[in-house]
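Still learning folds. Look over my entry:

…
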Amino acid sequence: MNDCSIEKQLLSVNDIDMYVESRGAGEPLLLLHGFSGLGRDWELIFKEPPAGYRLIAPDLRGHGRSTNPARSFTFRQAALDVLAMLDQLGIKRCKAIGLSGGAKTLLHVATQQPDRLEAMVLVSGAHYFPEQARKLMAQMTLKSHSEQEWEFMRGRHPRGDDQIRLLWEQANAFKESYDDMNFTPPYLSNISTRTLIVYGDRDPIYPVEMALEMYRAIPYSSLWVVPNGGHGPIFGEFTPGFVQIAVPFLGRG
């Protein structure tokens, strides 16, 4: 039985307080949640840490219990935060899984400091924002969210309605962002990290063609397209299959 006790830390990272939870014992496995999510989302995937792994799940800046005094968000900055967190934890090299915004963050980590990642799994990631994603982002105004959505977010982000409002405003602003996520195939070809790309073939935000672009550009990559999978095809009925494929992939030498 793996040790499921949770270690909770609030680290001073760059200009923020970053909340981090760790579970298990063994080599570090970094888990990065999606935008507007939080680190504890990974408990839905890993009820217990996989054997031989210490799961490290931070709340990215402005999410969950982490602060964001600058009130701005880029995935490039999120990667710098994660790298500073790893430095504080004394982790020179690790394996990682990123979901959506977490996968975008890992693309920045893998290009900024390639030696830090031994292997990574990118779930529903995107190397740029396609037009269909920008159209959806434009529709994500504060008025578009229901009271049920507000209550759901209040149960996840404890720093008040201003925190939630800011996250939704940032998500809407991504529609006009062109420099933060702008990885061309030649740039992706510099990634040396062994990579598994996971995409749902019914993703309404990022078309599956984007997964093929990354797969063809990243040298040491594998591709798994999940049948009937939407955005983030790792939850619910998809969880067992994801764990059965992702964990052995990470364990390969």
Notes: The chain has a mean pLDDT of 96. The two ends are 24 Å apart (CA to CA). The first helix runs from residue 75 to 88.
